[in-house]
Design brief:
heterodimer, A: about 300 residues, mainly alpha, two-stranded antiparallel sheet, 11 helices, about 5% strand, globular, B: about 325 residues
């Protein structure tokens, strides 16, 4: 493989990796702390993208639209949590799977009613529409670099939030022993709601940023949701650090999996298999993932 | 107590009798359309019953059960395809039109796949298990999407493969319906034998308290793996019937939402009851068929209904007829 192609694909892989991380960070927290399977997480990815795609032409500002889309998705998440999910925390996983599957059907149909079944396209914001030569002779889209930077920044922010703040301390404590944290006088319900809304906003951010790169349609949340599950399982449920490492690995494997087979004359869809084989291998050796959370 | 036991038996018999009479009534009423419709429902009921074995009795929340249906369907489709093209599968194996060979082959291969997937998945539990079964199913899905020889994403339409044992014409709506009905009865019978056997009790024990079962000396992993394999094989049989029913195979049959649909059928009817999934399949698939006539956006209603069912009516349709299980703790 030529070196330039290799560099370009490495950046693509990292960029897809951080997108996966944004999805996985919220989901792994919800899973780790609340012990709750949420299949509807992909819906917030989708909602974020749809919100932004609608708001950009209205407001004329990409940044404003992103902020509003995140707030919108967080608000929908908040509402969903309070109306439907709150009662599910204490239920078994089967109930959670079923109910959140119901939520997927609901959100998908809602989007179909509001925006129609046809995919919509989102333009790359003009400010970032150019290309830049990081390595001479290899122009790389600025927007993809922006996605990468945002992903890394959010990762750093989460690390700070979880390890250096009081809220993060409560989150970690909640993950290891829910009842104890509750008994110490922390309003665990509010903590859950907050974490859930944060997760929704992160998923929406991933969706917004993926919007101009791919296509905004009703199925967009499904594919990434399952890959996010793979990331979480590989990284270890409840571990944000694990999610980050696994997301980068999966992003890389997925990206190079698409390039390498064509170099050997194989179908590119075979690449989809690579990450599942990786997951099976990891689980075979470490059934609780690479970074099993304590507890 | 005895009264309600009788009630559930009456309910089951009435249901089976209705299903047996349905094609005759449909023909008399000039609504032959229902025969094909219900044949499809019964095929999915078989798959839902197989899921109930591991989900309801074993407590294994598999979110990848549709993969086994898909593999079963593809085995039949591929065999018939090669038979009609007069080519060899992988250059060695000839195809066949005979369902008596193709269906058991589908069952065996699905069971073998379930064994391999179970081997890895059952090392985990809880959330991990849900996600791994989902991911494996997704993997199988993409294998078939990438198989261009058999139509890839578009699927494969095939002709033939609808004469059973050289004499029974499955092309005839009524005949095929009764063949599927007979398979369903067989699966129900064997399923009941299975869950009432020592093996079935151990599986249920693993659901309630796996650690205790291990302490009692049962190798729970092996028991669960056996149950998972059997369920995969039966789902493969359902897939085989489905392929013959449609004369068409495509990866969409094993899309992950199909696995979700199967779980819904099991819960809707009442899990851990075997007959419940049959009821659930009927209710779910009739809704899927007829609700779109009222509103195109029926899922926006169905989604929240599902949430409500989970929150308030966990025991399913069958649970209203069946007496609450006594003595055995919460079931």
């Amino acid at each position: 493989m030529p070196l330039l192609l290799f560099l370009e694909q490495t950046l693509n892989g990292l960029q897809f990796g951080v997108t996966l991380f944004l999805m996985a960070a919220g989901l792994t927290l919800v899973l780790g702390i609340m012990n709750m399977v949420n299949l509807a997480h992909g819906a917030f990815y989708m909602l974020g993208a749809y919100f932004a795609a609608t708001l950009v032409p209205l407001t004329g500002s990409f940044f404003l639209s992103v902020i509003l889309a995140l707030l919108g998705a967080a608000a929908v998440g908040l509402l969903t949590e309070m109306v439907a999910l709150r009662t599910l925390y204490s239920r078994d996983h089967l109930d959670q799977v079923l109910a959140t599957f119901g939520l997927i059907l609901f959100f998908r149909e809602l989007v179909k009613i509001l925006w129609g079944p046809i995919a919509i396209f989102m333009d790359v914001p003009t400010l970032f529409s150019g290309r830049v030569e990081i390595v001479p002779g290899a122009p790389y889209p600025v927007y993809r670099l922006l996605v990468l930077a945002v992903g890394v920044a959010v990762g750093a922010f989460l690390w700070w939030l979880i390890t250096r703040t009081r809220l993060g301390m409560l989150i970690r404590a909640g993950a290891s022993n829910r009842e104890m944290v509750g008994a110490l006088g922390v309003d665990i319900k509010r903590l859950y709601t907050l974490v859930f809304a944060l997760g929704c906003a992160l998923a929406a951010l991933a969706g917004v940023m993926a919007g101009p790169l791919y296509v905004v349609d009703i199925g967009m949340g499904d594919d990434i949701l399952i890959k996010t599950f793979v990331v979480i399982v590989i990284g270890g449920i409840g571990s944000v650090r694990g999610a980050f490492v696994a997301a980068i690995i999966v992003g890389m494997v997925d990206t190079f999996g698409r390039i390498l087979p064509s170099q050997f004359g194989l179908s590119a869809t075979i690449a989809e298999l690579a990450i599942y084989i990786l997951m099976a291998a990891v689980l075979f050796w470490k059934p609780r993932g690479l970074f099993p959370a304590a507890g | 107590m005895i009264g309600s036991l009788d009630r559930s038996r009456v309910f089951i018999l009435a249901l089976l009798a209705a299903l047996a009479l349905l094609p005759i009534l449909a023909t008399l009423g000039g609504e032959e359309f229902y025969i094909g419709q219900f044949r499809r429902i019964l095929i999915f009921a078989i798959a839902a019953i197989s899921l109930d074995l591991i989900l309801g009795y074993g407590g294994m929340v598999s979110l990848g059960h549709a993969a086994f249906i898909g593999v079963g369907a593809y085995v039949v489709g591929i065999l018939v395809h090669h038979a009609s093209e007069e080519t060899l599968f992988l250059g060695i194996l000839p195809g066949t039109f005979e369902p008596l060979i193709a269906w058991p082959a589908a069952m065996l291969i699905s069971a073998a796949l379930a064994f391999v997937i179970g081997l890895i998945s059952l090392r985990t539990s809880g959330v991990y298990f849900i996600m791994i079964t989902l991911a494996f199913a997704q993997m199988v899905y993409y294998v078939f999407v990438s198989l261009r020889t058999y139509g890839g994403d578009d699927g494969l339409r095939f002709r033939g493969g609808d004469t059973l044992a050289g004499i029974i014409d499955l092309g005839d709506d009524l005949t095929f319906y009764y063949v599927v009905f007979a398979v369903l009865l067989g699966v129900l019978y064997l399923g009941r034998r299975l869950v009432r056997s020592r093996f079935g009790r151990v599986i249920e024990g693993c659901r309630e308290n796996e650690r205790r079962m291990r302490a009692l000396g049962f190798p729970s992993y092996r028991y669960k793996l056996a149950a998972f394999t059997i369920a995969g094989g039966v789902a493969g049989l359902a897939g085989a019937l489905f392929a013959t029913h449609e004369s068409y195979i495509s990866p969409s049959i094993m899309h992950w939402t199909r696995s979700g649909d199967l779980i819904i059928m099991v819960i809707l009817g009442g899990m851990g009851t075997l007959y419940g999934p049959l009821v659930g399949a009927i209710v779910f698939m009739l809704m899927e068929k007829f609700l779109p006539d009222y509103t195109q956006h029926w899922q926006i209603v169905f989604g929240p209904i599902l949430v409500l069912i989970v929150l308030f009516a966990k025991r399913g349709v069958f649970g209203w007829v069946l007496p609450p299980r006594s003595g055995g703790g919460h079931g």
